[in-house]
Amino acid sequence: MSKQPGILGSLRNPVFRALWVSAVISNTGGMIQQVGAAWMMTLLTSSQGMVALVQAAVTMPIMVVSIAAGVLADNYERRTVLLCAQAFMLIMSILLTGLAFAGLLTPWLLLTFTFLIGCGMGLHNPSWQASFSELVPREDLPSAVAMNAMGMNVTRSVGPALGGVITATLGAAAAFAMNALTYFVLIGALLSWKPIKRERTLPRERFLSALVAGLRYMMLSPEIMAINLRGFVFGAGAISMQALLPLVARDALGGGAQIFGILLGAFGLGAVVGALNAARVRARMSNENVVRAGSALFALCCIMVAVSQSLMLSVLVIFISGTCWLNVNSLLNVSVQLASPRWVLGRMIAIFMSFIFGGMAMGSWLLGWIAETQSLTTAFFVAAGILVVSLCWGLFAPLQVSGDLNLDPVDRHAAHALKLDLNRRSGPILIMVHYKIAQADVTAFLALIAERRRVHMRDGARRWTLLRDLENPDIWIESYSFPTWTEYLRHTERRTKADDDVIRRLLALHCGPEPVRAQRTIERQTVVPLDDMPRIDGSLGVD
Q1: Could you tell me which residue, 255 or 16, shows the higher pLDDT?
Q2: Of the chain's two ends, which shows fewer C-beta atoms within 10 Å, N or C?
Q3: Which letter does DSSP use for residue 240 in this model?
């Protein structure tokens, strides 16, 4: 990657700084709530599987809601989406607090409210992270992502310890009340933020169309797809340190809520140290090597926690696992953001989160089930095995993401004058591009045109075909279509300067006396209506 900015670079921006501090306070409240929920579950039931499901109830809704939230992040003002998410979580937290003080909570009711608060986080996260590109310049984006991760993990060191103290002294209901209060801080900061209004030249995409466009972009972007799959596997193994820690505190170490808070605090403190060194690590190691090293070291930590009966050793090992978690997770997150243009950024972040949190939710359920049916030690050994899979995955499909891509839009064709009167629903639109390619350059041309096809299809083109003239084999015709004029304009807005590199190389292969010719056409039906078709006897119409 290119030169890494300092970890604190993004804090030079006063708006980002205010929002970041408010988010740290709010996330601290969230961690206090999670500690209270996890410990209350141990009081409500003796089932180890139900205890592990508390973490699954936090992560699973993020997987379920995130993709839809990504569509909202790309089509509506992100501050509005953030305010709606925070208001929803505030209401759910107040209800949870009231039920807890009234003594009406049951294990499944606790999981339900935990799930609903997780849904609010799922709605919040894509818009929050996609807002970084509005708040800081591109060179400070890795810093913003790392600071966000560090802020979340500062809360893992402060929040669990504070949550343990509050839960142990005042009860879980007080922990839920503290969480509810912290939402007001972030809501106030969001109300004071005045983002720059973006002028829309096209109508908002319909929800389903926008969702399909995001999934299509991800499926046709090999780099992003590789990041998502790796994040799923890593998340499934790495969640062990969070999902099983209540059982480590209670069963392996014989402690209570305070010991649980100390263990989670060690994990969070390790993540903070990891964040402070993340830029230095990425500067010295490739993306793939960071993920491999993090997976290997995390797997070793799982094994050591599985056999440890010492609080000091467990705290040290969990601290190291926190540094691994932060470095791998933030690197994958930054890679997705640097590989995604603005028009689809919210959806790509949301899909990445769905993969990694989906892995975490599945890992929480699987490891909790193993801990209950087999043993806690076995569950940690299985987690280590999953992380070894993440390590070996890179041997066959290494990450290949560059932070040097220029993803600014080109928007070259939108201003072209038309001699036909079209409205936005006119179509279908057919594009044909004519090339003249010497026989010696055919192999290179086919390789480049395949890449161009991927880019076009990723950005919304349909029915892409490549034709060759039978009478003049040097002539090649690229053809693709769009259902409406609006979809064609969306396509032109989505083209980035990085995509232009393929176009320049294709143009360099063109050997005709005139420039490459591109035609934009609209299909017109020419079938004669049935009533006007001639009969066999020469008359018109039908009897």
Answers
A1: 16
A2: C
A3: H
